[in-house]
Amino acid sequence: MSALSSKKFYPVIHCVDPNNQGIGHAIDNVRIAMTNGADGVFLIGHNMRFSKLSYIFEHVRERLPEAWIGLNFLDISSEKLWTELSTIARRCTNLNALWIDGMPNHRISLPRTIQVFGGVAFKYIDSQLSGAALSEACAKAVRCVNVATTSGDSTGSPPDVLKLYDIKENLDGKIPLAVASGVSAANVLQLLKFADIFLVASSICARGPELDDNEYFIAEKVRELADLIHR
Questions:
Q1: Do the beta carbons of residue 129 and residue 120 sit within 8 Å?
Q2: Cα–Cα distance between 202 and 12 in angstroms, integer?
Q3: Main-chain dihedrals φ then ψ at residue 228, nearest 5 degrees
Q4: Which DSSP string corresponds to 83-152?
Q5: Which helix (H) or strand (E) holds 9?
Q6: pLDDT 10s digits, 105-123
Q7: pTM (global) more than 0.90
Q8: Quick one: which of 161, 162, 160, 191 has its CA closest to 178?
Q9: Residue 186 contacts by C-beta under 8 Å, 6 or more apart in sequence?
Q10: CA nearest 149: which of 206, 215, 79, 102?
């Protein structure tokens, strides 16, 4: 990464069950990301118990102790979400970030070394927020998390530029803004005007060989996007 760039690029790994080559799959993808200009990665557990994602993380951390790694648990009920997540996060060795699509009602108790990413106008929750409601959501983000994270209306859909402008204005430079859907080499230069952090999967992934039909990063696409974000 260029020493002059403050922008961050975190490819997102959709993890698979540890019993289905999930540990090797995660390690391989982290290595592709880190050797092609990414600043770190997020591991996400779709259709996976938090215990399995934590297990994968611990193996990745053991093999790649210097990598910046965040986690996104998707299986914990909303009423227990932040209390339970903070407990789990504390148990993860040298975890760098915790990401959740929603937003806590208060700043949760975590070591300062763990950044908390929380959703603002996020897909499938409240992606159409505007006006006073959006201003309130941004003010809450400033109080409760380290990074405001937004998206388009659905997976693979980029957010509207006017929406990013409004969020950025409301955050007023107090915390960074991350974009977590629809980022690609074709649109990232436009998004760079407003966003500080880019969480990317769809545009840099392909399926593996026939006997391993899991997502893997394409090294050339990771490098291309990293160069555009960091230039």
A1: yes
A2: 9
A3: -70, -40
A4: HHHHHHHHHSTT--EEEESS--SS-----TTSEEEEESS-TTTTTT--HHHHHHHHHHHHHH-SEEEE--
A5: strand 8-14
A6: 888 888 999 999 999 999 8
A7: yes
A8: 191
A9: none
A10: 102
